[in-house]
């Protein structure tokens, strides 16, 4: 049972380039809604996000310990006694970071949630587009590197709405996403852009998946419909490219390889790379262009942007709930 805790000090800005508080534009694009369809998980996320994190959870967790200073600052500036909700908490590296706050994490990946639980954290399996908390439950919420795994604008917007919904008036929400504008541009060359055909069929506004989610299985889509490397994408298209598969290399020597990954290779979820000595999983990413995160949060009448910045190849915003 959680007790209601008072707020005692205002949040400090994280950035010298801090945005002055402004009401978020109330215009929203027509294809975005909070209807139940945005809460149905598209097959691309099931196969290339959820199943991948489930499969790589122990290895992923072993690589995730460095705390991002901007997130640490946000958490350390929260008033003592704040209830902090971490949506998409991964291995829980931010849970408990400020020992004067009470943290609750959630993630779509049950193996990652189990890893958090084993560390003694308060966690549950939940979808970021449908958070299992009542309105105004938390004092603050964070979504660190999660929204770029949602495959439609409607779902990304719904996830923002959920973060705002679950904090109380005056509460703050920190959101970070991967930027198209990567500091190390060579990284992008290691990602696999989704082909035009794939984009039109599965990501675009006319996507059958958006109209009829769940009725089509990605299992039936041959891997050849997904481009390999950048070679199927022209220079122009590459510049506009925002939909990628980002590889995760799971070394053969990891114990997991003997179990789940063997099956994953057999059923096409992963492939072997004998040169690197690893099983390669593709994770779906929608990387954000400049201004896109700000536009995404537009349309929310009950939140304002109190800070926004670019840091270490990520776009970030801090929202304050106003009513
Ligand atoms: C790049 S990791 C970031 C984890 C953590 N926030 C951190 O900063 O280390 C992305 C996380 O988002 C989770 N995730 C992806 N889609 C999700 C969804 N729809 N709902 C909740 N979690 C999701 C993944 O399982 C994974 O743990």
Characterise the protein shown here.
- Residues 85-175 form the Methyltransferase type domain.
- With 323 residues, this protein is an alpha/beta fold.
- It has helices spanning 36-39, 43-63, 69-76, 110-118, 153-165, 196-203, 208-211, 235-240, 260-266, 292-296; strands at 22-23, 83-87, 102-107, 123-125, 138-144, 167-178, 192-193, 243-251, 270-273, 278-286, 303-311, 314-321.
- Helix 2 (43-63) packs parallel to helix 4 (110-118).
- It binds S-adenosylmethionine.
- S-adenosylmethionine (SAM) binds at residues 49, 53, 64, 88-90, 93, 107-109, 112, 127-129, 144-146, 149.
Give a quick rundown of the structure.
The protein is α/β, with parallel strands linked by helices and 323 residues long. It has ten helices and twelve strands.
Count of beta strands: 12
The largest sheet, given as strand count, sense and whether it forms a barrel, is: 8 strands, mixed
Stretches where pLDDT is under 50 for at least 5 consecutive residues are: 1-35, 208-233
Q: Would you state the CATH class of the domain at 22-180 and 289-321? A: Alpha Beta
Which term fits the overall shape?
globular
Here the CATH topology of the domain at 22-180 and 289-321 equals Rossmann fold
Termini gap: 25 Å
- Calculate Rg over CA atoms: 19 Å
How are strands sequenced across the largest beta sheet? Answer: 1-11-12-6-5-2-3-4
Strand content: 15-25%
The helical percent reads 25-40%
Could you give the order of the helices and strands? EHHHEEHEEHEEHHHEHEEHEE
Pfam families: Methyltransf_11
GO cellular component, one term: cytoplasm
Biased composition (Low complexity): 29-39
Protein name: Methyltransferase type 11 domain-containing protein
């Amino acid at each position: 049972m959680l007790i209601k805790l008072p707020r005692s000090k205002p949040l400090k800005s994280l950035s010298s380039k801090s945005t002055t508080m402004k009401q978020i534009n109330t215009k929203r694009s027509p294809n975005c809604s909070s209807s139940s369809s945005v809460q149905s998980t598209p097959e691309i996320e099931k196969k290339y996000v959820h199943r991948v994190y489930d499969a790589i959870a122990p290895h992923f967790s072993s690589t995730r310990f460095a705390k991002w200073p901007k997130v640490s600052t946000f958490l350390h500036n929260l008033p003592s006694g704040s209830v902090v909700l971490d949506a998409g908490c991964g291995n829980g590296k931010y849970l408990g970071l400020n020992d004067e706050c009470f943290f609750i994490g959630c993630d779509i990946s049950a193996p990652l949630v189990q890893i958090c639980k084993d560390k003694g954290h308060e966690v549950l399996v939940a979808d970021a587009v449908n958070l299992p908390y009542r309105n105004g439950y938390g004092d603050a919420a964070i979504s660190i590197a999660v929204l770029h795994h949602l495959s439609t604008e409607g779902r990304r917007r719904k996830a923002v709405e959920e973060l705002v919904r679950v904090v109380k008036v005056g509460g703050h929400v920190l959101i970070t996403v991967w930027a198209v504008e990567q500091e190390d541009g060579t990284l992008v060359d290691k990602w696999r852009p989704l082909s035009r055909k794939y984009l039109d069929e599965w990501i675009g506004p006319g996507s059958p998946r958006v109209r009829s989610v769940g009725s089509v299985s990605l299992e039936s889509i041959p891997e050849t419909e997904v481009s390999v490397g950048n070679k199927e994408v022209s220079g122009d298209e590459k510049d506009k490219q925002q939909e990628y598969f980002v590889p995760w290399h799971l070394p053969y020597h990891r114990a997991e390889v003997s179990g789940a990954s063997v099956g994953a290779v057999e059923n096409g979820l992963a492939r072997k790379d004998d040169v690197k000595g690893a099983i390669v999983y593709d994770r779906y990413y929608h990387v954000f262009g400049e201004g896109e995160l700000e536009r995404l949060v537009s349309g929310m009448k009950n939140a304002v942007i109190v800070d926004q910045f670019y840091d270490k190849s990520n776009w970030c915003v801090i929202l304050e709930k106003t009513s």
